[in-house]
C-alpha cells in the first residue's frame, strides 16, 4: 500500500520556510521586498480562482503581489506593452501571465511569455530558461513551477533519483518536457511517453519513478505501475459523479484507487501537485528577489569571457588588428559585468548606453581603486597614453583577473580625418570596434553640436528682435496670450527671480519691470559663444554673419570652433547627474549686457531645450578592449582650453560596477602639467573622487627631444638621433620626467612611471630612465610592451599600479578656490610649470576684474596653454627655468565651472594639413569594411 505524498502539507512547510527567509532577507538587505506581478487577460472563473490562491499565499509569505487585469478586448501589442512595463519595474522580481488568455483577439501566447525578461520569468516558460534547462544549466535558469514541485515531492520520499528509471507520460512544454529534462540532469534514465507511444502500459511499467501529465482522466491503472514505484500525478480532470453535490468530482491522470495498492508513494488529486505549483512559484519569486538584492548590494568577481589575442610580428596596422578581432555582443559583456538589461540601451550589437540608475542600485557599494594615466610633455606624435590606458586595463583584467574598467574620451572627427588620427589606442591595446569608436559612436558629439548651435542662433535672434521691437511688442510675443490667458513659463519665472521681481502674473509688471524682463541688452562685443562643427576648417576661424537683407545690416564678426571646444562638451564631462547638467547649461554665460551684467542661457529661455538635446548624451557609452574587458567612452573636451578628461559620470559608474577590489583606469589629456593638473584641481574637485595613483607615460623618443634632440614633426620620418642609442641625450631629457613626477607628488599621489618601449630603444637607454625615475620620487618605474603584446605586455605595470594603489592616500588640491583669480593662476605657473611668475596683460586684468564683480572669483582655474612645453613657448623643451608666463586673456566657462586664462595664442578651430588622414580612409563596397583609419 502506497504512502500518500501530501502536497498540501509539503507546500505548507515551504511557505513557512519562505516566510522566514523573507524576514531574514529584510534584515540582511535594508529595503528588501520581493515583488510578483500576475497579468490576466479576460475574466475566466478558473483563472480567477488560481490567481486568488497565488495572491493569498503571497500575502501570507510577505511577497508584494499585484494583479494586472486586462480586458478581453486587449490586443497582442497592449498585452506585450503591459509585460514590458513590468520588465522595467525594479520592484517586480517575478512576472507570470495567467494562461489560457481569455481574449477576443488573436494573440501569440509564446511571444507574450517570451517577452518576459528571463530573470523575471518565474513560471520558467521563456525559451531562454527552457533552453538552459535542456542543456543542464540548472543554476543559470528558472525551473518551471510544476516540474520543480514534482521534483521536490520525489525528493521528500527519500528516493535516490540517481540511476533510477523514470517515465514521464506527456510532453507538454509546461510540464512533460521540462520534467524529463529535470530528471535527466538529476541522473535518472528517462523515457518520455505520449499519446503516440506504442504499448504505453509496457513503457510505464518500467518506471521506478512515474510522472503523469497526459490530460486523460484515470488513464494509468494500477497494473501499469511497477511495484514500489513513486507515482506523481499532475493531472486534474472533472468527471461526472451524481453522488456529488456539484455533479462531478476531480480525478487525476492516474487511477488512484488501484495505483495506490502497487506504488510505494503516490500523490492524491486534489491536494498533491497543485499546491506545490503555487509554492514553487513563490519560491522562484523569492529566489529572484534575493539575487536582485545580492547583485545590488555587492559586486562579485566578474565571469568575463576574455578574447584571446593572435599576436603577430611585425605588429600589423591598428585597423588590421582591430578588424581581425571579433568583439563580443555588447549585451553579453553587460551581463558579464552584472548590469541589468533595463540599464543598458543597445546601439547596434557592439556598443550601448548605460543608465545612470546604476548609481542608485549600487549606492551602497564601495568604490574600486581610481587610477589616472598621464604623461610627460609629449612630442607632436603622442607618447601612447591612450594605448597605455587600454593596455593597463587589459593587464589588470586578463592577466591579474581583476574587475577593471578603462574610461577614455570620445575622439573628435576633426583629428580623425585631419592629422592625428583616432584615439582608440594602438597595436594590441585598443578599444573595439575601432571604426565605430572613431566615427560617430552614439552621436554624443552631434548632440553637442546641435545644442551649441541652437544657443548661438538664439543669441543673434534675440539681439535682432530687441533691436526691431518696442518693449510692449517684445512682452506680448515673449508672454503670449493663450485662450485669453497670459502666463509666464517656468524658465521665465526663474528670470524674474534673478531680476528681483517677485510678481508672478504678467498683468502685474510695471513698465520699468517689463523693460528689465524683455531687454537682455546684449553687448555684441562681449559675446563669447561661438558656433561649432566637428570638422577641422581653418576658413571658419573668422566669419561675418547677418549679411542677409532681412537682417537689416546687423552684421558682426564671429567664428566657428570645433565641437569638442564647446563649453557644453566640458559640462558633459563634469556634470554629476541630469539635474546638475540642467543647472550648468542654464547658467552658462554667453555675453554681458551693456551695463556689465552676465547674460546666461536661461536668460535666453533655452536651458531646458539644451538639456533635452543632451538627455541621451549624458549616459556613458559601453564598449570593450581587444581582450574583451569593458570600456566607458564618454565626453571629449579639449585638453588645452578645457580640462581634457573623460566624464565624471563614466568614472563614477565604473567605480561602482567594479566594486571595492576592482580598478578604474582613466586618462587625462596631454602631459601631466595640463591634463593631470586639471584632473586633480577641476575634475576631482567636482566629482569628490579621490585618486589612488597616477601612471606617468614616457618614451625614449620624447626624452631625447627634451634632451636637445632635433625637432619632431608629425608626418615626417624621425631623425637618426631618435633611432640610434644616445644615453646622454636620454638622461638630459629626463629633466622633464623629473618635473612631471614632482607635479604629481604635489597632489600627494604615488606615481608609477610607464616607459612605453619602442623597437629602437636600447637596454641602456631604458635602464637610465628607470633609475632616474625611481631616484626622483616615483613609486616605481617599469618597461611596458602592451602595444606589441596586449595585456601580457603590461603585467609588470599592472602589478606596480596595484601596489601603489594600496598606499595610504594623501591627496590634496594645489590651491584653495577662494583665493583671488590672479593668485591661483600664479600658483599653477610657479609650481607646475616652473615659472618665476606671471604677467597679466591689460585685457586679462580687465576680464578678471569683471569676473570678480560678477561673482565668479571662486572657481578653479583651467589653463589654456601649449601642450608641447612646460612654458608658453612650444619650442622650449625639458624643464625650463627663468621665464615669466604671459596671460593674454582670461575667459570664463561658468556652466562648466572654471576660469580659463589664455597663455599665448590658442586655436579653437584646427586646420587641415596638406595631406590629411582622409586620403587613406575609404570603404570596400563589397564587404562594407572601412580601410585606412588609424
Short description:
The chain has 934 residues and is of the alpha/beta class. It is built from 32 helices and 37 strands.
Quote the average pLDDT: 93
Distance between the termini: 80 Å
Quaternary state of the chains:
single chain
Largest sheet: 12 strands, mixed
The low-confidence runs, each spanning 5 or more residues with pLDDT under 50, are: none
What coarse outline follows from CA principal-axis ratios? Answer: globular
Helix content: 25-40%
Strand content is 15-25%
- Number of helical regions: 32
Q: Radius of gyration from the CA trace? A: 35 Å
How many E-type strands? 37
**What structural category characterises the helix and strand content?**
alpha/beta
Layout of helices and strands:
Elements: E1 3-4, H1 7-28, E2 35-41, H2 45-61, E3 64-70, H3 76-88, E4 94-97, H4 109-115, H5 127-135, H6 145-156, E5 165-169, H7 176-185, E6 189-193, H8 200-204, E7 209-212, E8 230-233, E9 237-240, E10 248-251, H9 256-259, E11 265-266, H10 273-297, H11 318-324, H12 330-336, E12 344-346, E13 352-354, H13 357-361, E14 369-375, H14 385-399, E15 404-408, H15 413-417, E16 425-426, E17 429-432, H16 434-438, H17 444-468, H18 471-478, E18 481-482, E19 485-486, H19 490-498, H20 511-518, E20 531-533, E21 543-545, E22 556-558, E23 560-562, H21 567-574, H22 578-586, E24 589-592, E25 598-600, H23 607-613, E26 621-625, E27 630-633, H24 648-658, E28 663-667, H25 672-687, E29 693-698, H26 700-706, H27 727-745, E30 751-756, H28 763-775, E31 780-784, H29 786-789, H30 795-805, H31 821-833, E32 837-840, H32 842-853, E33 884-887, E34 889-893, E35 898-902, E36 922-923, E37 930-931
Parallel strand pairs: 1-11, 2-3, 2-4, 5-6, 5-7, 7-8, 8-11, 14-28, 14-29, 15-27, 15-28, 20-23, 29-30, 30-31, 32-33
Antiparallel strand pairs: 9-10, 12-13, 13-26, 16-17, 17-26, 18-19, 21-22, 24-25, 26-27, 34-35, 36-37
Amino acid at each position: 500500500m502506497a504512502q500518500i505524498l501530501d502536497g498540501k502539507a509539503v507546500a505548507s512547510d515551504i511557505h513557512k520556510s519562505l516566510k522566514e527567509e523573507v524576514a531574514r532577507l529584510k534584515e540582511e538587505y535594508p529595503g528588501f521586498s520581493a515583488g510578483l506581478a500576475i497579468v490576466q487577460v479576460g475574466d475566466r472563473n478558473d483563472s480567477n480562482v488560481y490567481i486568488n490562491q497565488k495572491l493569498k499565499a503571497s500575502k501570507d509569505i510577505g511577497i508584494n503581489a499585484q494583479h494586472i487585469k486586462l480586458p478581453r478586448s486587449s490586443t497582442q501589442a497592449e498585452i506585450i506593452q503591459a509585460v514590458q512595463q513590468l520588465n522595467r519595474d525594479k520592484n517586480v522580481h517575478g512576472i507570470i501571465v495567467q494562461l489560457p488568455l481569455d481574449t477576443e483577439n488573436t494573440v501569440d501566447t509564446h511571444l507574450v511569455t517570451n517577452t518576459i525578461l528571463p530573470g523575471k520569468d518565474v513560471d520558467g516558460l521563456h525559451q531562454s530558461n527552457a533552453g538552459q534547462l535542456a542543456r543542464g544549466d540548472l543554476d543559470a535558469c528558472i525551473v518551471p513551477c510544476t516540474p520543480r514541485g514534482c521534483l521536490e515531492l520525489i525528493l521528500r520520499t527519500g528516493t535516490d533519483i540517481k540511476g533510477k528509471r523514470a517515465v514521464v507520460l506527456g510532453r507538454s512544454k509546461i510540464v512533460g518536457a521540462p520534467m524529463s529534462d529535470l530528471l535527466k540532469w538529476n541522473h535518472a534514465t528517462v523515457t518520455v511517453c505520449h499519446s503516440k507511444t506504442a504499448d504505453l502500459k509496457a513503457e510505464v511499467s518500467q518506471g521506478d519513478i512515474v510522472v503523469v501529465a497526459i490530460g486523460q482522466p484515470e488513464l494509468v491503472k494500477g497494473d501499469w505501475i511497477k511495484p514500489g514505484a513513486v507515482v506523481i500525478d499532475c493531472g486534474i480532470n472533472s468527471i461526472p459523479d451524481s453522488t456529488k453535490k456539484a455533479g462531478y468530482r476531480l480525478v487525476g491522470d492516474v487511477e488512484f484507487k488501484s495505483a495506490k495498492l502497487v506504488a510505494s508513494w503516490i500523490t492524491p488529486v486534489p491536494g498533491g501537485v497543485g499546491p506545490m505549483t503555487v509554492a514553487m512559484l513563490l519560491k522562484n519569486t523569492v529566489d529572484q528577489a534575493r539575487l536582485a538584492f545580492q547583485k545590488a548590494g555587492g559586486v562579485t568577481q566578474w565571469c568575463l569571457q576574455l578574447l584571446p589575442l593572435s599576436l603577430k610580428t611585425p605588429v600589423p596596422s591598428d585597423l588590421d588588428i582591430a578588424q581581425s578581432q571579433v568583439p563580443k555582443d555588447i549585451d553579453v559583456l553587460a551581463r558579464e559585468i552584472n548590469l541589468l538589461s533595463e540599464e543598458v540601451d543597445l546601439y547596434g550589437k557592439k556598443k550601448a548606453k548605460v543608465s545612470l540608475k546604476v548609481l542608485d542600485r549600487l549606492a551602497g557599494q564601495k568604490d574600486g581603486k581610481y587610477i589616472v594615466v598621464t604623461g610627460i610633455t609629449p612630442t607632436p606624435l603622442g607618447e601612447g597614453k591612450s594605448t597605455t590606458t587600454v593596455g593597463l586595463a587589459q593587464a589588470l583584467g586578463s592577466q591579474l583577473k581583476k574587475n577593471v574598467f578603462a574610461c577614455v574620451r570620445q575622439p573628435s572627427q576633426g583629428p580623425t580625418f585631419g592629422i592625428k588620427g583616432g584615439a582608440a589606442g594602438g597595436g594590441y591595446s585598443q578599444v573595439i570596434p575601432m571604426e565605430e569608436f572613431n566615427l560617430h559612436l552614439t552621436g554624443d558629439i552631434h548632440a553637442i553640436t546641435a545644442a551649441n548651435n541652437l544657443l548661438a542662433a538664439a543669441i543673434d535672434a534675440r539681439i535682432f528682435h530687441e533691436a526691431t521691437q518696442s518693449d510692449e511688442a517684445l512682452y506680448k510675443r515673449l508672454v503670449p496670450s493663450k485662450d485669453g490667458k497670459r502666463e509666464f513659463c517656468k524658465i521665465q519665472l526663474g528670470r524674474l527671480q534673478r531680476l528681483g521681481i517677485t510678481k508672478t502674473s504678467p498683468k502685474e509688471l510695471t513698465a520699468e519691470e517689463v523693460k528689465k524682463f524683455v531687454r537682455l541688452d546684449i553687448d555684441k562685443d562681449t559675446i563669447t559663444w561661438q558656433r561649432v562643427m566637428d570638422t577641422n576648417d581653418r576658413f571658419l576661424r573668422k566669419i561675418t554673419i547677418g549679411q542677409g537683407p532681412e537682417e537689416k545690416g546687423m552684421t558682426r564678426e564671429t567664428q566657428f570652433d570645433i565641437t569638442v571646444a564647446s563649453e557644453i562638451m566640458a559640462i558633459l564631462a563634469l556634470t554629476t547627474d541630469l539635474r546638475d547638467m540642467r543647472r550648468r547649461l542654464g547658467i552658462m554665460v554667453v555675453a554681458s549686457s551693456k551695463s556689465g551684467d552676465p547674460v546666461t542661457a536661461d536668460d535666453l529661455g533655452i536651458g531646458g531645450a539644451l538639456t533635452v538635446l543632451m538627455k541621451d548624451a549624458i549616459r556613458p557609452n559601453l564598449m570593450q578592449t581587444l581582450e574583451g574587458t569593458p570600456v566607458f567612452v564618454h565626453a571629449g573636451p579639449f585638453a588645452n582650453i578645457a580640462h581634457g578628461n573623460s566624464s565624471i559620470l563614466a568614472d563614477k559608474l565604473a567605480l561602482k560596477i567594479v566594486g571595492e577590489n576592482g580598478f578604474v583606469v582613466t586618462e587625462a589629456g596631454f602631459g601631466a602639467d595640463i591634463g593631470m593638473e586639471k584632473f586633480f584641481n577641476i575634475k576631482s574637485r567636482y566629482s569628490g573622487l579621490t585618486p589612488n595613483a597616477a601612471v606617468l607615460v614616457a618614451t625614449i623618443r620624447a626624452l631625447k627631444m627634451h634632451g636637445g634632440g632635433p625637432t619632431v614633426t608629425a608626418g615626417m620620418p624621425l631623425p637618426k638621433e631618435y633611432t640610434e642609442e644616445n644615453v646622454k641625450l636620454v638622461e638630459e631629457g629626463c629633466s622633464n620626467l623629473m618635473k612631471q613626477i614632482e607635479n604629481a607628488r604635489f597632489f600627494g599621489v604615488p606615481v608609477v612611471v610607464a616607459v612605453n618601449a619602442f623597437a629602437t630603444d636600447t637596454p641602456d637607454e631604458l635602464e637610465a630612465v628607470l633609475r632616474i625615475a625611481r631616484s626622483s620620487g616615483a613609486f616605481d618605474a617599469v618597461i611596458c610592451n602592451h602595444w606589441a603584446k596586449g595585456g601580457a605586455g603590461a603585467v609588470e605595470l599592472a602589478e606596480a599600479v596595484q601596489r601603489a594603489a594600496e598606499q595610504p592616500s594623501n591627496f590634496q588640491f594645489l590651491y584653495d578656490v577662494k583665493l583671488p583669480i590672479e593668485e591661483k593662476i600664479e600658483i599653477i605657473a610657479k609650481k607646475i610649470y616652473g615659472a618665476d611668475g606671471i604677467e597679466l596683460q591689460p585685457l586679462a586684468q580687465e576680464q578678471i576684474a569683471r569676473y570678480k564683480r560678477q561673482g565668479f572669483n571662486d572657481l578653479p582655474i583651467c589653463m589654456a596653454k601649449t601642450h608641447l612645453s612646460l612654458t608658453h613657448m612650444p619650442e622650449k623643451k625639458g624643464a625650463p627655468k627663468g621665464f615669466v608666463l604671459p596671460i593674454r586673456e582670461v575667459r570664463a566657462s561658468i556652466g562648466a565651472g572654471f576660469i580659463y586664462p589664455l597663455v599665448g595664442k590658442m586655436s579653437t578651430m584646427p586646420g587641415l594639413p596638406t595631406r590629411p588622414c582622409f586620403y587613406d580612409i575609404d570603404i570596400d563596397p563589397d564587404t562594407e569594411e572601412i580601410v585606412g583609419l588609424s
